[in-house]
Design goal:
Layout: E1 8-13, H1 14-27, E2 32-36, H2 38-42, H3 46-55, E3 60-63, H4 66-74, E4 80-83, H5 92-97, E5 101-104, H6 107-120, E6 124-129, H7 141-157, E7 160-166, H8 178-196, E8 203-205, H9 209-214, E9 222-225, E10 250-255, E11 258-262, E12 267-268, E13 274-275, E14 280-285, E15 302-305, E16 308-313, E17 321-326, E18 335-339, H10 349-356, H11 360-365, E19 373-376
Parallel strand pairs: 1-19, 2-3, 2-9, 3-4, 4-5, 5-6, 6-7, 7-8
Antiparallel strand pairs: 1-10, 10-18, 11-14, 12-13, 14-17, 15-16, 15-18, 16-17
Helix pairs in contact: 1-3, 7-8
The structure holds pyridoxal-5'-phosphate.
Pyridoxal-5'-phosphate binds next to β9.
Amino acid sequence: MNETPTRAYAEIDLAAVRSNVRALRERAPRAELMAVVKSDAYGHGAVPCARAALDAGATWLGTATPEEALALRAAGIRSRIMCWLWTPGGPWREAVEADLDVSVSGTWALDEVRAAAREAGRVARVQLKADTGLGRAGCQPADWAELVGAAVAAQAEGTVLVTGVWSHFACADEPGHPSIALQLTAFHEMLAYAEKEGIEPEVRHIANSPATLTLPESHFDLVRCGIAVYGVSPAPELGTPEELGLRPAMTLKASVALVKTVPAGHGVSYGHHYVTERETRLALIPVGYADGIPRHASGSGPVLVGGAIRRVAGRVAMDQFVVDIDGADVSAGDPAVLFGPGDLGEPTAEDWAGAAGTIAYEIVTRIGGRVPRVYRNG
Ligand SMILES: *Cc1c(COP(=O)(O)O)cnc(C)c1O
């Protein structure tokens, strides 16, 4: 895009993505790094962020769905790509032909991938997922022998190569949580069993961003980093991005759409949950919940406009919200910064998360498709 959009845009600093990947690689020097680019790279744009991450030394990309992974291949990306969120009847054959690494949590999935490999005349790259305690995807320890046995048989018939054994933490963002050590122990045990049965995984991995940052014994051969690649702290308790050596990549900007003077006692936005105390000036910010601005941040979301942080006055609507700029010198067309790295006085995604009662992951990931992404430092 040549011209900066006028209504609103999310500026994505690809130099920040590259420097975050380098910082994470320094935290896990013996492991390879998978940049997790699911959900359009947490709202930052999958293809440009994937390219930036690979430039900075990531050797793997990770997505949730196979469609997301196939889109990266279609864009010409040749690196290893793993995807883990499968349902019966999924695009197994396309995945095998695109040389994706596919995750398998149960024998139904192994059966489907074997059939696809046979049809394609190719060997499928499969990673076995262990549920070491998260209680979400992954194979339970009680079912592990059956899954490993089926994988060993599939390798013997030549349809499958098991490239990885992996798992995922429940509470890595709470260092010292007792589940962390229990999950590591379970992972070691399930890995040892698979290896005893003849599986020789190229990569063993369990660490997400918080584990990469806080738990070296979880790094194994590969760390899977999502949120930290985009420069957002996995949890405020772990430190600010700056303290973690990270830089937020997304800045969300809008242009003030209207400024007007209203009398005292004037209700603002749906429901009139804000009423002016005195004659004042209101500025209209032309983004709303359709753009991913959380309605839960009504009355509290922060915006830098006219040199000061203002709070959303009244409700966030679908396409717009209002701030009370009091006596400030603000005109239509002036910039309003909802969040960014914070070093120019603007709020951060973490501030919006606090205002909306959620996590910063959700703030950046939900910025909607109607908001153009503008790439810097590509
Ligand atoms: C999303 C996801 C990650 C990345 O998590 P972050 O906390 O963003 O680093 C890693 N592994 C799996 C399985 C995921 O679903």
